[in-house]
Amino acid sequence: MRLRLLLSLSLAPVLSIFAQQPIAAIPGDEPTIALYSRLAEHAGRLIPMLAQMKTEVWVAKGASETYVQQTTSVTVQLEAVQQDMRSLQQHPDALQEGMKALFRVQAFHRSLDSVLSGLRRYQNPALADLIVSVAGEDTPDLQQLENHLVEIAAQKDKEYTVVEREAQRCRGMIIREPVPAPRPIRKIP
Q1: Measuring CA to CA, which residue among 117, 86, 84 is closest to residue 99?
Q2: DSSP E strand stretches across 10-168
Q3: pLDDT score recorded for residue 144
Q4: What is the CATH number of the domain that holds 75?
Q5: Domain that holds residue 68
Q6: CA-to-CA dists, residue 50 to 68, 118, 135, 175, angstroms
Q7: Could you tell me if residue 10 is inside a domain?
Q8: How far apart are CA 63 and CA 50, in angstroms?
Q9: N or C end: fewer C-beta atoms under 10 angstroms in the chain?
Q10: pTM score > 0.85 for this model?
Q11: Backbone angles phi and psi of 178, in degrees to 5
Q12: Given this model, what pLDDT does residue 177 score?
């Protein structure tokens, strides 16, 4: 009980510091919410373009069945990116979810390259070029997303450092506190 009281009293100043300091790029940050909105809209623009790919026709022309699976995977990834970005609009400070969304976008771009080579070869090189052009439009927003996530991570790291330092101070105080003498044990006759 005494330990809890000591910890709550010693952590109160630290917690009040967090309450007083504004945190940059955290909930309610309109530019960040707008960023997630733009990335969701961007994904939405690509989905109809990907729907124009006719991989069954490619296979009939001698393409590998792998293109069918890759095209399905790319479309599913893009729809998930769109959903992730919409979800992040509600929680713009969610570091873990933000990182997952960023990695998903990056995986989408890597997977898209393979599918576009099939599109160029077996269907329509102009459509492939259009998709490349539109897909590249999100590059500045992705860089901004990376910067935002780095800022959140740095802020959380600062918070952790302050809390850890305060916890160490409390442990030191507890260690220096005199240990009460044990009560004598009464023997029952």
Answers
A1: 84
A2: none
A3: 92
A4: 1.20.120
A5: 25-151
A6: 12, 12, 11, 64
A7: no
A8: 17
A9: C
A10: no
A11: -65, 145
A12: 75
Q: Judge whether 11 lies within some domain.
A: no
Q: Where are the alpha helices (DSSP H) in 52-94?
A: 55-60, 66-90
Inside any domain, residue 187: no
Residues 6+ apart with CB under 8 A from 54: 123
| Structure tokens belonging to residue 49 | 């373009």
Segments in the chain below pLDDT 50: 1-27
Whose tokens are 């970005």? That residue is: 85
User: Would you say 46 and 138 are in contact if contact means Cβ atoms under 8 Å apart?
Assistant: no
Compute CA distances 139 → 19, 47, 111, 142, whole Å.
35, 17, 16, 5
| Token pair for 40 | 């969701």
Number of domains in the chain: 1
Residue 186 pLDDT: 78
Tokens of 177: 């506190």
